[in-house]
Structures are given as structure tokens and as C-alpha cells.
Design a protein that fits this description.
This is Oxidoreductase/MSMEI_2347. The chain has eleven helices and ten strands. It is α/β, with parallel strands linked by helices. The protein starts with a strand and ends with a helix.
Length: about 280
């Protein structure tokens, strides 16, 4: 496994396993155990995924020492604000059956995320959180938070894949020493990613799948990836991306696929903001 070193010295696996859209507790527990058996040690969950308890059970059942894991969760919109955020993180610790979390992110840049971040900074200083950061923060809100916080976010998890490479945002994060992390590294198959001619051509050269090439491209750009699948064979495939290296020519060809636009939604779109904030008013 390759690692990135966060701005506070904490080491984070560059490849992890995400459990988004696996709300069924039995299936999620099975998937996390399968991922652990394959070799994954970084697990990414969130309060809004409603599967923290299943992740916690899998970690306990694995029999692997806690310090070998890198566990991430995220504070949801309805838990924003200092008091609610602090209580919700304590609840996440209980659900995950952990004494500390390796990384906690603000899930969305809505509601009182300043209060949320203050609570996270406090828990970070107490040692309950080894690193803190944000998710879905575009450059404007990201810079604003950085400028008025004591602890620079260690990570910003944003939609990042070959069709939306976040090159400008990535440069801004580098400037402030924040690690970029990808959600949706396969764009959930949008834009026919799995049959893309450029990805297939490069994959054929190395005997790799389009998915493996898509992950390798991000990894070589220094992006942390957390692909999600419920299929163990796919977990193994996604894990086996460290035995080949893309050439400068390969990287240039894939860089040309960048549209600079989201394959899902934009936080600059009023309808999207209304949808997320209305959903975020509902308690978990």
C-alpha cells in the first residue's frame, strides 16, 4: 500500500474502501469484512450513510489491531453547529465502537459548518480525532474556512474522476497543504467511463481494466481514492493498482478527458442547494 502524509504528519492510505449506498447492515458488514480480507485498511463511512454500526462490527470481527485501520466518517448537515456536531461525533464513535477516529470531515458546506469545525478542532486537540477536514467544499468556501480556522483541513473530499479532474481546485488545496481525496472515482459509470476508448486502450497495454486505469491515473496525481463495490472480485481488482505505472503520454491522454464539469451536481446551482439543505433538515 502507498500512503500520503497529511499536513499534521498522519499517514493515510492512498487507496481505501467506501461504503456509500450500502445501507443494509448485514450487506455492509459483509462488504467491509470482504474488503479487509482483500487488504483494505482505510474505510470511509458517514453519518448520512446510516451504516456506521455495520462498519464498526466488521472492524471488531476482523480481529485486526485498531492501529492498522484508518477510519473516516463525516458530520451530516442536520448535525451542524458546535453542540450538535460534538454530540454526533461522540455518537459516531459509539456506533463504530472506537476510542478515536482517524479522520472526520464536514460532509457538506451547509448550515453552521463553522460551529461544526470548532467542535472538530476541539476533539482533535483532545486526541479523539487524528485528523479533520471537509468534503464537497469548493475553492471559495474552502479558502474562507482555511483563513478563519486554527487547524488547516487535512483533507478535502470532492468529486474527482477522469471527466472532472479538479485541477484548479487541486492546485488551491496544495497551496494551503490540504490533501485532495476523490469520491466517485468511477463517476458511477457516467459518461460511459467503463467503456471509454482511451481508458480501454491504455488498459490493454498493461493488461488492466478501465477501472484500474482510472484509479491509477488519480493515484499518480496524488489523489486519495475510495472506490466502492459490493463485489469481492471487484474489490480485489480495485486493490491491484500498484503493479503498473502510467507513462507521461498515458497521463496526458487521460488528462485530455477532463470536462471540468461535475457528472452529478453543482453546489453553485440553487436547486441542488435547496435539495441538499432540505434533505439536511431531517435528523438522522
Amino acid at each position: 500500500m502507498e500512503y500520503v502524509t497529511l499536513n499534521n504528519g498522519v499517514k493515510m492510505p492512498i487507496l481505501g474502501y467506501g461504503v456509500y449506498q450500502i445501507p443494509d447492515h448485514e450487506e455492509c458488514e459483509r462488504c467491509v469484512l470482504d474488503a479487509i480480507n482483500v487488504g483494505y485498511r482505510s474505510i470511509d463511512t458517514a453519518q448520512a450513510y446510516r451504516n456506521e454500526e455495520a462498519v464498526g462490527r466488521a472492524i471488531q470481527k476482523s480481529g485486526i489491531a485498531r492501529e492498522e485501520f484508518f477510519i473516516t466518517t463525516k458530520v451530516w448537515i442536520s448535525n451542524a453547529g458546535y453542540e450538535k456536531a460534538k454530540a454526533s461525533i461522540e455518537e459516531s464513535l459509539k456506533k463504530l465502537q472506537l476510542d478515536y477516529l482517524d479522520l472526520v470531515l464536514i460532509h457538506q458546506p451547509f448550515n453552521d459548518y463553522y460551529g461544526t469545525y470548532r467542535a472538530m478542532e476541539e476533539l482533535y486537540k483532545e486526541g479523539k480525532l487524528k485528523a479533520i477536514g471537509v468534503s464537497n467544499f469548493y475553492p471559495d468556501r474552502y479558502i474562507d474556512l482555511v483563513q478563519f480556522s486554527e487547524v488547516v483541513p487535512a483533507v478535502n473530499q470532492v468529486e474527482t474522476h477522469v471527466f472532472n479532474q479538479q485541477q484548479k481546485a487541486h492546485e488551491i488545496m496544495k497551496k494551503y497543504n490540504t490533501q485532495i481525496e476523490s469520491w466517485g472515482p468511477f463517476a458511477e459509470g457516467k459518461n460511459d467511463l467503463f467503456t471509454n476508448a482511451s481508458l480501454q486502450e491504455i488498459g490493454n497495454k498493461y493488461g488492466k481494466s478501465t477501472a484500474q486505469v482510472a484509479l491509477r491515473f488519480l493515484i499518480q496525481r496524488g489523489v486519495v481514492v475510495i472506490p466502492k463495490t459490493v463485489n469481492k472480485n471487484r474489490m480485489e481488482e480495485n486493490f491491484n493498482v500498484f503493479d503498473f505505472t502510467l507513462t507521461t503520454e498515458d497521463m496526458a491522454k487521460l488528462s485530455a478527458l477532463d470536462t471540468g464539469e461535475s457528472a452529478f451536481f453543482s453546489h453553485y446551482d440553487p436547486q441542488t442547494v435547496e435539495l441538499l439543505t432540505n434533505y439536511g433538515k431531517n435528523d438522522l
